[in-house]
Amino acid sequence: MRNTAQEKKSLTSYAVITGLIVLFAIIAVGFSREFYRKQRMARELALLQQQITELEQSNKDLANFLQYLESDAFVEAEAKTKMNLKKPGEKVVVLQLGNSTTENVTPKTAFGTARGGSVAPASHAALWWAYFFNRNN
Question: Is-contact 66 60, C-beta < 8 A?
């Protein structure tokens, strides 16, 4: 009798230990799943915060661009470039470069008539300088 009682006690303690191990495994799996989910959510949160920052910067850039589009400077630039308009009293200067009109023009450099009939190449800056400051032509 003792043997069977001891066997029952031993069997019961093995069952309890096995049950506790299974319970511990279930709890450990639950904790590991929750830890993994928390890590994944932290990564998603960091990604979303980065996207928020990028979108806020894009929004600021678009607001600045919209403000420029509504400004008088933009309207004036568009009127000049696309509609060929000018302000009252403003003079329009058109520089033609190339050989299309050089047949009827005496050879000149940016600072006066060329010597020997050859034309020295002039930079755009020199042409503008000559236009505004050499008004004796």
Answer: no
Task: Please state, in angstroms and rounded to a whole number, the distance separating the CA atoms of residues 111 and 135.
Answer: 11
Collapsed DSSP state (helix, strand, coil) of residue 109? strand
User: What string of H, E and C letters represents the secondary structure of 86-106?
Assistant: CCCCCCCCCCCCCCCCCCCCC
pLDDT tens column, 88-106 = 888 878 788 765 544 444 4
Task: Let me know whether 101 and 44 are in one domain.
Answer: no
Residue at 90: amino acid letter: E
Torsion from C-alpha of 94, 98, 99, 102, nearest 10 degrees: 40
Both 56 and 100 in a single domain? no
Buried b (16+ CB within 10 A) or exposed e, 92-110: eeeeeeeeeeeeeeeeebb
pLDDT digits 0-9 by tens, 33-85: 999 999 999 999 999 999 999 999 999 999 999 999 999 999 988 888 888 88
- Residue 46 forms part of a structural domain: yes
Q: How confident is the model at residue 131 (pLDDT cuts 50, 70, 90)?
A: confident
Tokens 């420029």 identify what position?
Answer: 68
Q: How many domains does the chain have?
A: 2
